[in-house]
Amino acid sequence: MNTPFTEKERRDLLDAYFRDQERSEELDYEIAVTGGGAAETVVQELEKLRGSLSDARDQYRLNVPVLPLSRCPITRQVAYHSIDVYGLDGPWWDNQVPIRPVEVLPSTFIMVLGALKLGPSIEKAPFPVRPGPEAPYVVPEVLSHPEVKAVVSMVKVGAHTAYPVFYYGLDWEKDIEPMNNWGANHWSYLDRDGNLRYNEYGVIPISDDSYLEDLEGDGDEDEDEGYTVDFDLRRWVEEGKLLWIAPGDQTFTLREGASGCPYLDLPGSRVFSLIVDGERLDDVDEDD
Amino acid sequence: MAKKNIDDQELEMREYHVPRAAVQPLLTSFSMVRNRLGEVFDLPQGDAGQATRWWQSQKPDDQIVLRQALTALASPVIMSDIAIMRGDQGLVQTTLTKESLRADDPAFLVGTDEGGENLRLRRLQSPEVMAGTILMYLEAGVEPGLADFKFEVNLNEFLVLLATLDLHRRSHMISLLEHEEAKPSLKLEDVQKSVNDGLQYPDPRWLVPFVVPILPEKPQLDWDAIWQAVYSLGQRGIVKLSGDNTELALTEAGDLLATEMLRKMTQVRIASLGYTEDGKQGSQTSFFIRGESLIWYMDVGAESVVVAAVDLDKAGELLAELFKPVGAPPVAQPVKAAPKAAAPAAALKPAAPAPKVRYCPDCGKPATWIEQYQRWYCYGCQKYLEP
To answer: Is residue A1, in this structure, part of any structural domain at all?
Structure first.
C-alpha cells in the first residue's frame, strides 16, 4: 500500500474492513445470545477478525492522506491535516469513532471547523457523518478574540466540495475552549512540546457539578453562553479576521479582503448535516 | 537571553537519519508545499517506491517528527549554516532550519553523514537551544571579561588583519619550539605569504581559512592591496609600520587582539539566509571567537566588517537575532503567469542583474543567489562563486 493510499487501495481496504466489521458484529451477537455457549470456532473466528480490524484501522490511520489545507497567517506555515478526500465513507469521517493520525500543526493552531456542500450522490457508511453545513461559517465568539484569525480554503472530497476553516491565534487558551474538530467528536492535536492535546467540547467534566445548581435554581440564571455561527463571511473578511486561499492554489497563498473572495454568499443549506446510511438529515437537537 | 544548561536533555536529542534520495519523492507524495529557500537543499530525485518503503519502515512516532522535518526542509523561512571549531579539534558543521516565523517555534539541525547518503536531522525545541549551546562553547567554562573594543574595517583590511593574527600565532609557536623570544615585529612579505597560505590551504584551525568560505567576495589581494590594507590598519591604530615600511608591529590594541587569538578556545561561523518582510532575500554573516578572556564578534557586511568585544549577554542577543526569521520566502510552485506586481518591482532596481541559474564549478550543485552581496553562494562547498 502506498502512503497516502490510492483510491483503489483505500476501496479494497474499506471493503474488507466493513465486511469484517459486519461479520464480527454477527459473531458478537451470536456469542451474546448463546450466553457464552458458542462454539470454540466462533470465538476463534471473532478473535481473528478483531485482529484484522485492528490492523485495518492502523493501515487506514497510517495511510489516510495528510494534505496541505491551510496556512497560518502568524507563522506563515502551511497547515497539513489528515482528511479522507476520497469520500465520506472513510472512517476519518466517522463522527463517533473517527480514525485519524496524530495531527501535527502550527503552534498557533486553535481548531479546524468546516462545511461540506454535498454532491449529487452521498456515500453509504456504517457510521454517522457530521461534515457541517453546506456553506462555510465562522464562530464569532472565537474569531472576535483580538489574537485570533481564521483561514478558509476549499478541498474536494469525492463528489463533494469541502470548506475547512482553520483558526489560529496567540495567547488564546485562557479565553477559548476549542470546539471539536471538523467532523469529529473531539479536539486533539500534538502541540509543539510534543504533548497530545485533547478536549471534548460540550462535555461537562465529572469534577464539575455546577450544573446541579442550574437544575436546582429558579430559572433566572443567564442563558448558557454557547458558541454561535455566522454565515455572513463578508464582515469578517473585510475586517481582516478571516483570510482565504483561492481554490486550487497550490502555493496556499493567503489572501485578504472581499474582492475576488469566492467564499462569500455561497449557496447550500445553513443547517448542519447529519449523514446516516447515505442520507442527509438536518442535524438538529430535538430538545431545541 | 537566558543561557541553556549544557546538560539539558535537548543536547542528547534523538538523531534521525533520512536517505537523501528519499526526501524529494516523499515531499512529492505528501504534496508538501515548497518555497524558494527550500531549493537550497540539494536533494537528488530518488526512487518513489524505495522512499515509500523506507517511510513505512519507520515507527509511527518517528513519522510524526520526520513529517515535521520534511516540512521544514520543504519550506524553511530561515537557514543558518553553522560551523564550530573548538580549540584545534575537528570542525563541526550543521544547518539550522525552521519553517515558522514564530521565533520560539521548533527548528531542525540538518547535516549529512560521512558518505553523504543520509541527512542527519535533530529536532530542537527552539533555536534558542542552538544559541545556548554556542554560548556555552563561547563561555568555555570561564566567564569572559569585558573590554570596550570596537572598530570597523573593509574586507581587505579584515583579511589582512586575520592573516597578521595567524602569522603572529605561528611566530609565537615557532619561538616556543625554537626556545627563542618571540619577534616583536612581522615582515610585510610574511604577512603577504600568510594571506596567500590562508587562501590556498583550507585549514580551519587558522583564522583566514575559517573566515574565507563565507566572505561575500573572493579575496584578490595583490601586494598593493595588502600594503594599502596594512597602511589603513596602521591609521586605525591596530598596527605600526616600521620606518622603512618593510615590517609591522602590533600596537597595544593589536597586541590585545593577537594575544587573545593565541589561545582562542572556540570559533563559530554563522551564515544565515532568509527573507525580509517584503519578500526580498537577505543574509547575515557573523563570526564569534572566544579568546583567552574575551568574546570577539565580527559582523560581515557587504562592504565592511565590524569587530567588537562583547559580553555573553550581548553574544546571546546577537545569536538570537541571527536565528530569527523575518519574512517568508516565496513559494516555489510552478507559476503559469507572473504576478502583475513583479514588473514594477523589478523596474525599481535596474542595476540588479536578473539572476540566472548557476552551478558550483567544484561540486556541480545549484548555487544560491545572495541578493545582499549580489553574489552566488554554494551551500555545499560553503563558498561564493567567482563573479
So the answer is: no
How close, in Å, is residue A173 to chain B by CA atoms? 17
CA A73 to chain centre: 22
The answer to whether residue A238 sits within a structural domain is yes
Question: Cα(A158)–Cα(B179) distance, rounded to whole angstroms?
Answer: 84
CB A108 to CB B102 under 8 A? yes
| Arithmetic mean of pLDDT, A261-287 | 90
- Residue B360's pLDDT is 67
Answer whether B102 sits within 8 Å of A75, measured CB to CB. yes
Domain match, A131 and A265 both: yes
Query: How far is the alpha carbon of B35 from chain A, nearest alpha carbon, in Å?
Result: 9
User: How many angstroms separate the CA of residue A86 from the nearest CA in chain B?
Assistant: 16
Q: Are residues A131 and A21 in the same domain?
A: no
Q: A94: which DSSP letter?
A: B
Q: How many CB contacts within 8 angstroms connect chain A with chain B?
A: 66
Structural domains of chain B in order of their starting residue, each with its CATH number: 9-139 (no CATH), 150-322 (1.10.10.10), 347-387 (no CATH)
Tell me which chain A residues have a C-beta less than 8 angstroms from the C-beta of B106.
192
Which among B60, B102, B106 has CB closest to A74?
A: B102
Residue whose cell numbers read 597586541: B255
Which value does ipTM take for this structure?
0.88
Section B130-151 average pLDDT:
92
Euclidean distance between CA atoms B328 and A60, whole angstroms: 34
Domain C-terminal end among A63, A84, A99 = A63
- The pTM of this model reads 0.84
Same domain, A219 and A131: yes
State the smallest CA–CA distance between residue B123 and chain A in angstroms.
Answer: 11
* pLDDT tens digits along B299-344: 998 889 999 999 999 999 999 999 999 998 888 743 333 333 322 2
Could you tell me if A143 and A196 lie in one domain? Answer: yes
CB neighbour list of residue A45: distance below 8 Å, 6 or more residues apart = A27
Dist. CA B364–CA B44, nearest whole Å = 13
Question: Which of chain A's residues have a Cβ under 8 Å away from the Cβ of B71?
Answer: 77-78, 80
Q: What is the pLDDT of residue B381?
A: 65
> In the prediction, which pLDDT does A283 show?
84
User: Considering only CB atoms, which chain A residues are within 8 Å of B331?
Assistant: 251-253
Rounded CA separation B108/B72 (Å) = 7
Same domain, A20 and A45: yes
Q: Domain containing A11: what range?
A: 7-63
In a domain? residue A288: no
**Side chain identity at B270, as an amino acid letter?**
I
* Residues of chain A found within 8 Å of residue B31, distances taken between Cβ atoms: 65, 67-68
Instruction: Please tell me which of the candidates A68, A76, A80 has its beta carbon nearest to residue B328.
Output: A76
Same domain for A39 and A98? Answer: no
CA atoms within 13 A on the CB side of A149: 20
